[in-house]
Amino acid sequence: MSFELYRESFPFRISEVEIGASASGNGQQRSLRVGGASTLPFLSFDGAPGHLPVVGMEVWDVVPEPWPVPLENVFGPVASDPVGWARHCVEEWGAEFICLRLRGADPELGDASPEACATLARDVLDATGVPLVVFGCGNDAKDNVVMQKVSESCAGRRCLIGPVTSDNYRTIAAAAMVNGHLVIAQSPVDVNMQKQICVLLNDLGLPQTQIVMDPTTGGLGYGLEYTYSVMERVRLAALQGESSLASPMIVFCGFEAWRAKEAKTGPADGVVQGALWEALTAGTLLQAGADMLVMLHPEATRAVREHIKALAGGEMAI
Amino acid sequence: MILIGERINGLFRDVAQAIQTKNPEPIQRLALAQIEAGAAYLDINTGPAVADPAAVMPWLVKTVEEVVDTPLCIDAAKLPAIEAGLKAVTKSRPIINSTIAEREQLEKYLAMAKDYGAYLIALTMNRRGVSRDAADRLAMAMEIVVTADEQGFPIQDLFIDPLVLPVNVCQENIVEVLETLRQVRTLADPPPRTVVGLSNVSQGCPHRSLLNRTFASMAMAAGLDAAIADVLDGELRETVAAGRVLLNKEIYSDAFLGSTSRTSPKQTLR
């Protein structure tokens, strides 16, 4: 008797998004494509799996303080030079993209000038040759001027900039549209607000192919399950026709995992618990539909990349 | 629930005149306006004044398809006019509107729908006319479903129209229609879809828009899948948008009015 596997199929698919583009006349820059799936993550027997999730690493413009010892051990030698740090991530640890976190732009953490931020972003972009995500400091007023300058200095390079929220999106989205970038549409772990910001961006004229959603990552033990539920709901709704939610998603596993006190303990027996914390956060969110994962620790980065490879290449266990 | 734009119908004077003078402009303008308003389908009807609907229908189809990609609902009283319309369709999968539940006619229409890969609307009425209560309508709906099944016609491609009559003519009819909508879903798995001519409910009444949208929200709650309606009525559209959110057909966002009218063209049949 033959057995036919039940196949779940969906009528719609996630938008395909391209991040990164060469400066004119310079073919050095790599680009990444994410999204495109017509089914749930890694269920390639049900539909088109789309592009594999990509794994990038986070670089800060200022030396993070306080700095967990295991991270200081790894990044200490390069942390004061963001461009060198970024190159190291790409050349030594295989980061597929760099996420430059502009902490130092925060008026309370150094108040770096928008021009300095813009120059740094451009330098990182040129030095690494991989696509760049630029993440603001979280102060809306400052981020608006910083992102405007960043988007000008990196014009035409299809950087992913943000975040934007439904309370603050016009300036950054307009700058992205004018200069050919993509924006990170952020919601506070809330499917309704995720839809709202995407609708507002669409209304402004930004197409789905220039939006990556950030549902706000909760690290393991700190809200991971909420993030998972929201992402799963977003993905299912998009596959069923919620066109405003049909963008790929980015998650910040490194940054969020290391906020947990458990991550900072160790290393014990040679294992960096924080790296495990990151990797477990990432492995979980991969199943919820994460398309871009931003990591910190090189060990976690490597583990997640291998995990993706195994999930994508594994034989179906039936 | 999806909206099928009702406006390209020879019953309307401007359309009748455009058909008579073979002037595509008013028809194309109506097609675009209805799409802009969120119609998922456009109903196309030559109207009763045309001497030979089968000769006019292809021109109407072509005129509309010149400006929109939206699928059409080919609406005529007689089979030759519908078939002429189906032959002229070049873009998307159309809906046939409609057949009565009389077996001989139903079989012909089912065969035609299969030949042209179309959806089919079947009315819960026969030669004796419209039935009074939900039980009668459901019995006819069941006959339609059984006949379709015998013919190998996919039940989810079938629309049951329980026939809405004007509230000022046949007031007790409305609750029977709502009850029919609720129960049609239990006739088969997957169930046939349902459709109504929404504006019929207010034919000849004052405050038509109010009656239409009130009925729309009741019918949506009863499970209605599609309505042939006045999509240019903004308040009706807003009622449908609110209904889609309240019935959990769409994820809520504060911009639910805007987002629904924009996404509804994509809420096609599947």
Structure description:
The complex is a heterodimer of chains A (318) and B (270). Chain A is α/β, with parallel strands linked by helices and 318 residues long. Chain A has one domain (20-312): TIM Barrel (Alpha-Beta Barrel). Helices cover 40% and strands 14% of the residues of chain A. In chain A, strands 8-7-6-5-4-3-10-9 form an 8-stranded parallel sheet. In chain A, helix 3 (114-128) packs across helix 4 and helix 4 packs parallel to helix 5 (170-179). The longest helix of chain A has 16 residues, at 224-239. Chain A is globular and about 65 Å long. Chain A starts with 15 loop residues before the first strand and ends in a 5-residue tail after the last helix. The mean pLDDT of chain A is 92. With 270 residues, chain B is of the alpha/beta class. Chain B has helices at residues 13-20, 24-36, 53-65, 79-88, 103-116, 134-150, 173-184, 208-221, 234-246, 256-263; strands spanning 2-9, 41-45, 72-75, 95-99, 119-123, 125-126, 129-130, 158-161, 193-197, 226-229. In chain B, the strands form 2 sheets. Chain B has an 8-stranded parallel beta barrel, surrounded by 5 helices. Chain B has a two-stranded antiparallel ribbon with strand order 6-7. In chain B, helix 1 (13-20) crosses helix 2 (24-36). Chain B starts with a strand and ends in a 7-residue tail after the last helix. The chains are: A alpha/beta (318), B alpha/beta (270). At the A-B interface, helix 6 of A face helix 10 of B.
- Annotation field: number of helices of chain A: 11
The tally of domains of chain A stands at 1
Biggest interface: A-B, 19 and 13 residues
SSE string of chain B, helix = H, strand = E?
Answer: EHHEHEHEHEEEHEHEHEHH
Query: What gyration radius of chain B follows from the Cα positions, in whole Å?
Result: 18 Å
